[in-house]
Each structure stands twice: as structure tokens, then as C-alpha cells.
Amino acid sequence: MMNPFHGFGHTLIEVVYALTPLFIVFMLFQIFYLKMTRKKVEDIIKGFIFTFFGLAFFLQGVQFGFLPAGEMMGIILGGLSYNWILIPIGFVLGFVATFAEPAVRILNQEVDKVTSGSIPEKVMLYTLSFGVAVSVALSMLRVLVGIPLWYFIIPGYLLAFALTRFTKRSFTAIAFDSGGVATGPMTVTFILAMVVGVATEIEGRNPLMEGFGMIALVALAPILSVLILGILYSKKEKENEQNMES
What is the pLDDT of residues 138-179, one digit of tens each? Predict the structure, then answer.
């Protein structure tokens, strides 16, 4: 049986490297600019400690469980005679992974707060989850059929740039931020490993090309879905204005 804490020391060192610069920057700002109360600084330091151990345990769990499980599922499903089932499975996993993504939750909360509730948190969450679900399903289809990645990427970004002409700047900014947020640890660790496993099992597929192209699609899908949401919101606002005038 594999030791779940094998290599945990190395993981702790990586987390130290990741969080130390942030902590140093915070302390410098606290000393020269922020000058918050001692109680507030203590609360923030406690938050850093929780973040440190939470991130360390999460990364260790990824190495011990998420990556192997995702890859083995991909290998098994890719070897089935009815491997088309990967498309609906990819849709469900993409939706669930984004729904549980911590970074997506934080983005949605910030959008809801900044817009004073005009863009509700739940609407953003379901929009992003649906967009990523479609992109993961397309990634599965791409691996199964062998469609080149640029068949999706070039038309997708051309469509995204075209949609920016019909939506507000606020939605454009949120959309492109959403693309980065959606490619968080939940999606990358489990679903990426699964797609790589599928590409490994299917004859004639290159795991390096087909597997890692999924992240590009996942980054593109939320941009399109949020821009479309922005267009729908704009139409709704115009209808409300017309109703008020009449």
C-alpha cells in the first residue's frame, strides 16, 4: 500500500516557496502603508497558516489520489468498444468540477458584490459550469475522433472577439478573467489526467498533443459563455427600458 504522505516534505517546501513572497509583500505594506490593528494582522496571519496547510494537503491529495484516479478512468473508458460514452461523462465531470472550483466561487462572489447583485452569483456559477462542461465534452470528442485543436481554438477566439462588440465592457473583462479562473486545480488535476489517459489508450493518439489541448478549450469556453450572457443581459435591459418608457 502506498504511503499517502510519501513526498509530503517536498510538497511543503513548494507551498513555502509559493506563499512566502505573498506574506513578505503583505508585511511590507502593513509596515509602511496599511498599518492595520494587531487583531486584524493576527487574523490575516491565521488565514495564511490555514492556507498553507490547506494547500499542502490539497496538493498531496492530488498527487496521491486525483491524478492516478483520473488517468486510470481515462485508460479504462478509452479502451471500451463504446468509448463514445466519454462525451456525456466529460460533460458531467466538467460541470461538477467547475461547480466545485474554489476560484470560480470567489470570482462569482466578487462579481455579485461589485455589481450590487445585478449579476447574481448563481447565474455566473451555472454559466461558467455549463461552458466548461461543453468544452470538456468537446475535448473528449476531439480525442476520440482526432480533430486538430486549432479547429476549435481559432474559430472560438474569433467568435469571442466578435461577441465583444455586442456586449458591455464589464462583461468582456469578467469573461476573460473567467477563462483563467475556470482552469483551476479541480479541472486541471482530475479531468486533464483523465483526458491524457484516454489519449494514451486510443491507438494513433498523442497524449502530449490531444491530452494537454483540453486546457486551451476549458479556458476558451467560459469566455464565450459569459459574453453570450452579457448579450442576453443587454437585451433584457433594453426591454426593461422600453417597458418603462411605454
Answer: 999 999 998 888 999 999 999 999 999 998 888 899 999 998
Asked whether residue 208 falls in the same domain as residue 97, the answer is yes
The region that residue 101 occupies, defined by phi over 0 for left and psi between -120 and 50 for alpha, beta otherwise, is beta
Helix spans in the chain (H): 8-29, 38-61, 67-78, 86-99, 102-114, 121-145, 150-163, 169-182, 185-186, 192-201, 213-245
**Region of 117 on the Ramachandran plot (φ > 0 left; ψ -120 to 50 alpha; else beta):** left
Tens of pLDDT, residues 178-231: 988 888 877 778 888 888 889 888 888 888 777 777 888 889 999 999 999 999
97 within some domain: yes
Number of neighbouring beta carbons within 10 Å of residue 82: 7
pTM for this entry:
0.83
Residue 185's domain comprises: 79-236
Cell numbers linked to 192? 486533464
Q: Are 218 and 150 in contact (CB under 8 A)?
A: no
> Are 220 and 145 within one domain?
yes
What is the dihedral sign for C-alpha 93, 95, 98, 99?
A: negative
Mean pLDDT throughout 14-27?
95
Residue 21's SS3 state is helix
Please tell me the predicted confidence (pLDDT) of residue 174.
92
Domain count, the chain: 2
39 shares a domain with 108: no
Query: Greatest CA separation found in the chain?
Result: 73
